[in-house]
Recover the amino acids of this structure.
């Protein structure tokens, strides 16, 4: 099971990373905090202190087009904010 789907690279997560030494990931909906911690430590070779996870429900969206109103739904996802140990760092921009 692939636990980490993708990292979250936004302004808000960058500020959190600078202030609290934490990184955000979108993770599998069925993964628990222990599995997320192990996956991050194995993938990035860092020491994880704390994991906070939250589930975001899908939202109903609609938009107007020439053919009328189109209704849809965004998918639900689980987000994990991982606090790294002192002195540890993950650099997502090193391969660019």
């Amino acid at each position: 099971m692939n636990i980490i789907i993708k990292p979250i690279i936004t302004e808000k997560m960058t500020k959190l990373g600078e202030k609290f030494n934490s990184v955000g990931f979108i993770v599998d909906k069925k993964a628990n905090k222990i599995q997320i911690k192990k996956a991050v430590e194995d993938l990035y070779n860092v020491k994880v202190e704390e994991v906070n996870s939250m589930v975001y429900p899908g939202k109903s969206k609609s938009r107007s087009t020439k053919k009328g109103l189109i209704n849809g739904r965004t998918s639900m996802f689980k987000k994990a904010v991982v606090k790294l140990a002192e002195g540890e760092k993950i650099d997502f921009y090193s391969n660019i």
